[in-house]
Amino acid sequence: MSEIKPSLLDFTQKELMEKIKPAFRVKQIFGWLYHQYVQSYDEMKNIPKALKDELAKKYVVNPLRIVNKEESSDGTIKYLLQMQDGKTMEAVWLKMKETQLDSNGEVIQEAKYTICVSTQVGCKVGCSFCLTAKGGFTRDLTTAEIVAQVVTLKRDNDHKHNRKINIVYMGMGEPLDNLDNLAKAIEIFKEDEGLCISGKRQTVSTSGLSNKIDQLGKMDLGVHIAISLHAVDNDLRSELIPMNKAHNISSIIEAVKRFPIDTRKRVMFEYLVIKNKNDDIGSAKKLVKLLTGIKAKVNLIFFNPYPGTTYDRPTRADMVAFQEYLVKHGLLCTIRDSKGIDISAACGQLKEQGEFSSAKERDHLGGKTESELK
Ligand code: SAH
Ligand code: SF4
Q1: Are 7 and 38 in contact, with CB atoms under 8 Å apart?
Q2: Which end of the chain is more exposed for a tag (fewer CB within 10 A), N or C?
Q3: 115 within 8 A of 93, measured Cβ to Cβ
Q4: Which of 112, 190, 114 is CA-nearest to residue 147?
Q5: Domains defined for the chain, CATH in brackets
Q6: C-alpha–C-alpha distance, residues 225 and 213, integer Å
Q7: Single pTM value for the model
Q8: Among 96, 95, 146, 98, CA closest to 120
Q9: Strands 224-228, 267-273: pairing kind
Q10: Segment 34-45 mean pLDDT
Q11: What is the DSSP letter of 299?
């Protein structure tokens, strides 16, 4: 294995200015990294060779390599990405349709893209319904490994730097358990001369580390939060998410109330619906009560079964009845359609199931990895 180095994607533009002189070179390099998505120093055409050689001794350009990808019939693409130490994780490219009005007032359908990003290899939280948890925890991702997921997927999809993109931190891992690296990645995404992805377009999903929700709020990064609530009483929530014992429902609700949000926006509550566990109208009733006074939006998620799980997917009728109850009682509520379900790319369903390199999957790359082909 070659030496593991930090990456140029680990640093804000200001930090790079402290490392690289003169400043205009940093601006050029920033353009190569975030507008051209270069993967090697060779591609940085207007940078002097001496500077590139110097930088190459200390930093890699992009620490990730695409080792496999699977495309779903709905346009969702799941990527398996390998890091410098050989470990792998996944990111997902999601295509959604957005209905908009054009300048003549005509209704047009525009494609809208979201990248689902991982923040750790594995996860410590250990939720009983989650496939990521089954593999235990390996390590936190570095800032560059978080940033590089977006750069790499935009490059692979030929998505220009100034086209809008949303980021959801809903891949592998608990984002708030890697808060420092996450916060720096959020800042780098926001850089005006980089990808320019505002906080409004970034959503941090958490299983509810209440003290870290406060810390994230104090950083005032302008991001949205999504709370993986999943249950309305502490007994069931602790069965599903063991760390609920330390961060119970009321501590989370209190932290959410303190969280700074854009006045036009809402806090998203994710509610994973599991058959005969939390899909009854009694739970819906308690949910309405719990969220009273919060500008909330509820996202109902079908439990997505996998081999070996004891939980079942709810029926659509129960799901719709649950949604109707919430809506009737004044809550905004959507049912998440299962994007990329045929390739198990539902967020939180990553890697373990598709752990790869099957001959069949490699075939479409001619037996080579994606980066070898580039
Ligand atoms: N750790 C963070 C973010 C990653 S998980 C969190 O828990 O919020 C992202 C989402 O995927 C969570 O809402 C999680 O509950 C959901 N998820 C996990 N396993 C799932 C499964 N088997 N079916 C459907 N959604 C699942
Ligand atoms: Fe970790 Fe989220 Fe999976 Fe729970 S649902 S184990 S917090 S990734």
Answers
A1: no
A2: N
A3: yes
A4: 190
A5: 8-58 (1.10.150.530), 65-373 (3.20.20.70)
A6: 9
A7: 0.91
A8: 146
A9: parallel
A10: 98
A11: E
Helices (H), the chain: 13-19, 23-34, 49-58, 131-134, 143-156, 179-190, 210-219, 234-240, 249-258, 281-290, 316-328, 359-363, 370-373
Q: pLDDT for 295-319, tens place per residue?
A: 999 999 999 888 899 999 999 999 9
In angstroms, rounded to a whole number, what is the distance separating the alpha carbons of residues 369 and 148?
18
Q: Which residues line ligand 1 (CB under 6 A)?
A: 129-131, 170, 174, 205-207, 228, 270, 272, 301, 303-304, 346-349
Interval 114-163: pLDDT, tens: 999 999 999 999 999 998 888 899 999 999 999 999 999 999 999 999 99
Pocket test for ligand 1, best of 228, 236, 252 (most atoms within 8 A of CB): 228
Cα–Cα distance measured from residue 39 to residue 57, given in angstroms and rounded to the nearest whole number: 16
Q: How far is the CA of 305 from the centre of ligand 2 (A)?
A: 15
The pLDDT of residue 370: 32
Residue pair 89/67 in contact (Cβ under 8 Å)? The answer is: no
The residue whose C-alpha atom lies closest to atom 7 belonging to ligand 1 is 207
Spatial separation of the C-alpha atoms in residues 28 and 23, rounded to whole Å: 9
Q: How confident is the model at residue 99 (pLDDT cuts 50, 70, 90)?
A: low
- The pLDDT value recorded for residue 340 is 61
Which is it for strands 120-122 and 137-140: parallel, antiparallel or unpaired? antiparallel
User: CA-CA distance, 39 to 283, in Å (whole number)?
Assistant: 50
Query: In 10 A of CB 82, how many CB atoms?
Result: 17
CA angle 56, 58, 60 (to 5 degrees): 55
- CA 180, chain centre distance (Å): 16
pLDDT tens sequence across 190-247: 999 999 999 999 999 999 999 999 999 999 999 999 999 999 999 999 999 999 999 9
360 confidence band (pLDDT: 50, 70, 90): very low
What integer pLDDT is reported at residue 139 of this predicted model?
98
pLDDT at site 74 = 85
What is the CA(235)–ligand 2 centre distance, in A? Answer: 18
